[in-house]
Amino acid sequence: MTSVVQDIRYAVRLLLQTPGFTVVAVIALALGIGANTAIFSVVNTLLLRQLPYPDPQRLVVVWEYNVPREKKDNVVSPGNYLHWREMNRVFEQMAGIATFRTTLTGQGNPEELPVQYVNGGLLTMVGVPPQRGRWFTTEDEAPNVNVAIISDRLWRQRFGADAALVGKTITLGKVPHTVVGIMPPGFSIFASGQTSGDIHVDLWVPIGFNAESRTPRGRWITVIARMKKGVTLEQAQDDMTRVHSELIRMFPDFNTGWMARVVPLQAQLTGDVKPALFVLLAAVALVLLIACANVANLLLARASSRQRELAVRAALGADRGRLIRQLLAESMLLSSVGGAAGLLLGWWTLATLRSVVAERLHVAQLESVTIDSRVLLFTLGVAVVSAIAFGLVPALSSAGVSLTTALKEGGRSGTAARGARTRNVFVIVETALALVLLVGAGLLIRSFITLLNVNPGFDASHLVTMKVTIPTSKYDSADRQRAFFDTLFQRIDALPGVQASGGNSYLPLNGMGAATAFDIVGQPKRPAGEENIADVRVVTHEYFKAMRIPLLRGRTFDARDTGPNGRRVIINESLALRHFPNEDPIGKRIVIWWNDQAEDEIIGVVADVRDSALEAEPRPMTYWPPARFAYPFMTVAIRTAGDAKAIVPAATAALHQIDSDVAAADIRTMSEVVDVSVAQRRLTMLLLAVFAGMALLLAAVGIYGVISYAVTQRTQEIGIRMALGAQRGQVLSMVVRQALVLAAAGILIGAAVAMLMTGLMRNLLFGIRPSDPITFAAVAAVLGVVAAAAASVPGFRATRVDPVIALRTE
Question: Is 192 within 8 Å of 74 (Cβ atoms)?
């Protein structure tokens, strides 16, 4: 222990005597360790940390899945859910949940909020008790029982943390609800159908199903279940396959072609972000490797000046193991300081992600990311492994020098040959790793640019949107709902600067939608389970004009499409090309499976819109007028001549003139809607670009260090060359050429590695191949330029060597 303390004290003195070396090494390690700490914290929270529910591994989501057609998870029919709940043998409990929006009034301005309607004791199933009050009971699901549970956030922000709120009444959608519970801070429940703008859910209301709901019709709820103890995921899937097969026999028209699929809740919550997180985790690991290679190079160069010291120590009795331990103590001390700085850098990075990125990009998962004991242990482990990684090779190399060899060198720092090969290898490795990161970042950047250049089918400029939900308790008929929105659009159109306005039941790129099957009159009916599928939207007023969605054929809705003439429909180009490839669809009739199966006449064809995501190909789409089907909610789109957001106060005032208890919610320009829809891709691209930039900087420092050391070692040679007539340009070219040779070797190796690794990014790319030659060539050129620039500094220094002085030193 005494000798260890001596090693540490001596290491501290040496590092303080060389502050430049120490600062550079600590910064390099802090960047690598800090990046790893930040990204591992995200991975730990989203992928490794268990969900905050009792026995979370037993919680699953059960989807309906169309085998022959869509091949993707789908929400569930309440009828199927009720039968699943009764017929399964593997679940302790099954519960349904659906997310909609409602307006909270009283105690301030009206506020439209997302609300989750829950059934089957969902809150008791997840096992998180309210901090105040109680859970819902079975009796709460009865008709005309209006109760609610609210979040801690809403309790504090809207109600001032009123300790007596439980038992009091709040008004949701013009209906009084008794508050029976307040959930603890941070509580949330997964549910599909939540819009991209809703990163928080603050209200939960029970919902019951009557006897008529047992007949499956319509799919709109998410089902969460808790498996019985001892039941495996495979057993649960087999049992649900059995149950749903029976439901196909009971309801063949509705269920043929569909199956049930069981997915662990943890996997469901992280499925979308897992590929990106793994790519980022690999990226920061490469950054750390480059940092370690850089510090190892610094230590090798520094060790050359200590050859005589180490040889004398050996002559005085220190064995090789003792010398290696001394050198590793210095490495461990460097790594400890770098690890502490990296931990602070990681903490700052996470704080930035939580405060800025999570809110601006609507990435709600980042809000819960913290540095816990597992992250601290990870950072400690990374620091220890890093110390060994960058310290072992210099220690082994330096500890083996004999006294005779060191004294023969006359006190010089060592020959150019000693350690040069190792240092060159480190530079090649740094360059290769940097190329891998730069290629990955380049692919994501090119992919993102390609995605942003996709035509969404509408013009997002000078366009603002807001969600308006009216209470069905007051507007209790389709006529009253239509009249409200007709009045609203008339008043908005009258505002100065408004060019057009309209509404859509589900705005493009907003995370929600509705779809159903349809038949074409005069064409053969497709088999059950293989029906034609189209998205269904209700649009009102001048929606297509406001969004600038081109009309390709026919006409849009107008005053002729009201009352009994409301059975009209507009289709998009994809539906027309797929189902009417060689004929004019105008005047044709289709039957959309909705609340009835009446025939609708096609009166127009509009251009395709990227509705679900910019990267998703347009699906067949049908548009109905309000006369055909009325919604109590609309997303209003307003096109203006100038700044779109400048019209918001006047539009909100027009809304409140009609009904002061109706709120304008989620007010965003359409450009902001587009930005939020690509937020996850943008965040992944930005982070990887930052890490690639760090790798490029560290590689440049490494090249500079090696070339600078080489120039120092070749001072005599350079002096002789210049004495014999070598020009400054020739000397500079010789130095830069050495750097370019090392960079070229790293580029070739890195390109081969990148070709293998970028295939793992395939799911993160859009419109770009993982082996994109333009990206590879551009990155190679950038690395070559950086290598030349890094070598030019010591190269210019070499051109100023005085031959007389260089030879005199010998």
Answer: no
How many other C-beta atoms lie within 10 A of the C-beta of residue 210? 8
CA proximity to 585, closest of 562, 607, 604: 604
- Numbers of helices and strands, H then E, in the chain: 25, 22
The single-letter code of the amino acid at 596 is D
Residue type, 301: A
Split at pLDDT 50, 70, 90, the class of 89 is: very high
pLDDT at 196 over 50: no
Nearest partner of 794 among 720, 738, 716, 756, judged by Cα: 738
First to last CA, the chain: 45
Q: How many CA atoms lie within 13 A of 374 on its CB side?
A: 13
H helix intervals, 366-477: 373-398, 403-408, 420-452
Half-sphere CA count of 636, side-chain side, radius 13 A:
33
* Pairwise CA distance, residues 549 & 455, whole Å: 11
Q: What are phi and psi of 541, to 5 degrees?
A: 60, -135
In the structure encoding, which two tokens stand for residue 805, read together? Answer: 């002085």
DSSP 8-state assignment for residue 772? -
DSSP 70: T
Bridge partners for 538 per DSSP: 624
Which pairs from 582-585 meet CB under 8 Å and 24+ separation?
A: 584/553, 585/553
* Confidence grade of residue 328 (pLDDT, cut at 50, 70, 90): confident
What pLDDT does 761 receive?
A: 87
Phi, psi of 196 (to 5 degrees): -65, -25
The token duo for 205 is: 């209301």
As a whole number, mean pLDDT of residues 501-505 equals 95
Name the token pair of 308: 């005589």
Pairing of strands 59-66, 222-227: antiparallel
Tell me how crowded residue 397 is: count the other CB atoms within 10 A of its CB: 18
pLDDT of residue 197: 47
Asked if residues 36 and 355 have their Cβ atoms less than 8 Å apart, the reply is no
Q: How far apart are CA 226 and CA 414, in angstroms?
A: 69
Q: With beta carbons less than 8 A apart as the criterion, state whether 731 and 802 touch.
A: no
Structure tokens at 287: 């950054």
Amino acid symbol at 470: I
Distances in Å between the alpha carbon of 620 and those of 292, 518, 570, 580, 611? Answer: 54, 11, 11, 12, 10
Task: Give, in order, the Cα–Cα distances in Å from 365 to each of 29, 186, 248, 362, 369.
Answer: 28, 11, 38, 9, 7
The one-letter code for the residue type at 224 is I
Structure tokens at 627: 């006369």
Q: What is the pLDDT of residue 307?
A: 63
Length of the chain: 810
Measured on CA atoms in the order 334, 340, 344, 346, is the torsion positive or negative? positive
Task: Give the confidence band of 410 by pLDDT, cuts at 50, 70, 90.
Answer: very low
How many angstroms separate the CA atoms of 540 and 507, rounded? 12
